[in-house]
Model the fold of this input.
Amino acid sequence: MTGPPSNATVLNTTVLSNFAQVDRIELLLDLPRLVTVDAVQKELEDGVDTHPYLERALTALEDDIPVIVPSSSAEELEAEFLETLDPGEAQALAVAVAVDGMFITDDGDARENAKRRDVDLTGSIGLLVRFVEDGHVSAETADTYLKRWIDEAGFRSPARDFDVFLED
Done:
């Protein structure tokens, strides 16, 4: 695929990695107009030797999640974002800005940049909440995933128990 659809949902590396780590990439596939970028694909490829579960994310990119090439306007934004962000975050955020899309990341600096640009934003925990609310996973399963991300992958979460993220 060359360009993203308008209002694309643009995945960053950490989110793909988290869902691959718990072997639940398929949860992401129903997100609207889902894409990622080639810099994210490269980051996943670079991490497979030390994190073999990333192969599941790469397989999804081959089969189900389009990897797009940023437009020239997105490339200009990417160059600006590269001053403070890693390549995957910079390119994914640039594409989300360019297409008025949603940016899905857990990276704090990338989230701050997205907020300054008024980009719709969520992350792994926000997606887990959505998947629980939509009935795709139970709250108990989401809690297990969160704890695995924290304990096995070094995920930094504002809380260890998933229940605090659910609205009463």
